């Protein structure tokens, strides 16, 4: 069995040509992974649309209905930052199915990677920062229900704080939210995660990796999760236009190897989503996202999962 990868062609939906969200990166990531023989089409799993009540396990039904039907008010739509269309609404829901499927596969095989996801700015009754529904939160709730597990650790290494996820689970002892993010960055108003580690602008590879190593092993020992959800945002890169940290490609690969190896060495299964990344150089951006899957493939073989 090879590393399970989750992908759907509908992870891409049309956007206006001038829009700054790099929607095409999801298709290009899949094509790069196959083209570079990191994965084969045969090891890729296709998610299905989740029932609406699965999304409502986290989100207010009125908000879910308004968004899916295209009746969300203009102010709420502007806060999300993406225009509404049937295709984008469908893409939003299929990506939720992808996160849930990735969590299922991780429990079955020890490690699995989505080729989208990380919508951690979505709150129960509104979306924000290109995030409509919170895939990390929904996957956590639904995998608890579907697989009968109890404890989920969310390791959010996107450059932005996982504010929506922190808010959703603020009173839930069975989901631990860990956010390592740039302090002087979006969102302006931070929420309170179970563990927040704000980082100074400009932090580079070695100091970043030492920071991760200073927290993750202890968290695993103390919380002992049934599943780790890993948000591997690449907006920590020095060239990211929304980032403000200064990691290199090598630093991102080392980070992903470090997180996955630390978890799997201690026998904690990991479900990965790709998180944020924003760059004019689309090929460079897609390559940085692919580092997660390259690291995961290597670790998967190393631990003979």
From TrEMBL:
The protein, known as: Histone deacetylase
Record domain Histone deacetylase: where: 19-280
One Pfam assignment: Hist_deacetyl
Keyword ATP-binding: no
Family assignment from sequence similarity: Belongs to the histone deacetylase family.
Keywords for this protein: Hydrolase
Highest taxon of the lineage: Bacteria
Source organism (scientific name): Phormidium pseudopriestleyi FRX01
Keyword Cell inner membrane: no
């Amino acid at each position: 069995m090879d590393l399970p990868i989750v992908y759907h062609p509908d992870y891409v939906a049309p956007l206006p040509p001038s829009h700054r969200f790099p929607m095409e990166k999801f298709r290009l990531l899949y094509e790069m992974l196959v083209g570079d023989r990191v994965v084969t089409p045969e090891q890729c799993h296709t998610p299905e649309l989740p029932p609406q009540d699965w999304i409502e396990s986290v989100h207010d039904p009125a908000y879910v209905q308004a968004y899916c039907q295209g009746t969300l008010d203009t102010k709420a739509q502007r806060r999300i930052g993406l225009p509404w269309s049937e295709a984008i609404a469908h893409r939003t829901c299929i990506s939720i199915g992808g996160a849930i499927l990735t969590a299922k596969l991780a429990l079955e095989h020890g490690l699995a990677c989505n080729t989208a996801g990380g919508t951690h700015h979505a709150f129960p009754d509104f979306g924000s920062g290109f995030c409509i529904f919170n895939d990390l939160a929904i996957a956590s709730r639904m995998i608890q229900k579907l697989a009968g597990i109890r404890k989920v650790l969310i390791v959010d290494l996107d450059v932005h704080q996982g504010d929506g996820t922190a808010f959703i689970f603020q009173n839930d002892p069975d989901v631990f939210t860990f956010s390592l993010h740039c302090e002087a960055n979006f969102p302006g108003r931070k929420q309170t995660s179970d563990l927040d580690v704000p980082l100074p602008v400009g932090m580079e590879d070695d100091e970043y990796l030492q920071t991760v190593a200073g927290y993750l092993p202890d968290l695993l020992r103390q919380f002992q999760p049934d599943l780790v959800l890993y948000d591997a945002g690449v907006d920590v890169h020095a060239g990211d236009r929304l980032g403000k940290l200064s990691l290199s490609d090598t630093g991102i690969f080392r980070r992903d190897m470090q997180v996955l190896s630390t978890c799997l060495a201690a026998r904690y299964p990991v479900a990965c989503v790709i998180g944020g990344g924003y760059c004019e150089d689309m090929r460079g951006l897609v390559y940085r996202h692919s580092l997660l899957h390259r690291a995961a493939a290597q670790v998967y073989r190393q631990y003979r999962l």
